[in-house]
Structures are given as structure tokens and as C-alpha cells.
Amino acid sequence: MRSLTLLHQSASAIRSLATAAMDATQGQLDDLAEPPGLLGVLEDVAKRLAGHAEPAKDQVVGTHCAHRSHAA
Predict the structure, then answer these.
(1) Count of C-beta atoms within a 10 Å radius of residue 23
(2) According to the model, what pLDDT value does residue 70 have?
(3) Phi-psi group of 37: left, alpha or beta (phi > 0 → left; psi -120 to 50 → alpha; rest → beta)
(4) Quick one: which of 43, 42, 44, 54 has its CA closest to 15?
(5) Could you tell me which of 15, 42, 10 has the C-alpha nearest to residue 26?
(6) What is the mean pLDDT of each run of 10 residues along the chain (72 residues)?
């Protein structure tokens, strides 16, 4: 029974592939390789990796500016 619960938990944790990212990757690969599909298995691996990747989050860049005035 315990192994069945573990199986259900593991299966529910599996996310679907990001097909939009995979399609975008294929488009980029088609632009890079002549003729399209030339890279074969490497293209498949690149698309699968793109499908598993988390979307990039915007980075927050903070700046700090300090001014010190001295009274003489």
C-alpha cells in the first residue's frame, strides 16, 4: 500500500512539457542549421531540455546612490 501511495505522489509531481518553449527552440534551431533537421538527435535533446526548463523570471536590479555633504 505504501508503494502505491509513493507511486501516486511521484506521478502527480510530474509536470507536462512546455510545448511553447519546445516550439520556440525548434524555430531557433531551424534558423541555425542548414538544412533544418540537420542536427538530428541533438535537436530532440535541446527541445526536451527546453520543455523541462522553468521560464526565466524577471531579475530585479537594485541600485543605491549615496551623497554625503560635509559642512566645513
Answers:
(1) 13
(2) 58
(3) left
(4) 54
(5) 42
(6) 80 81 89 82 89 71 63 55
- The size of the chain, in residues, is 72
Q: What is the pLDDT of residue 29?
A: 87
Run of H or E including 50:
helix 41-52
The alpha carbon dihedral of 36, 39, 41, 42 has a sign of: negative
Residue 26 · residue 47 · CB < 8 Å: yes
Report how far apart, in Å, the C-alpha atoms of 23 and of each of 9, 17, 51, 67 are: 29, 11, 9, 50
Cell of 16: 507536462
Closest CA to 49 of 27, 70, 26: 26
Extract the C-alpha cell encoding 62: 537594485
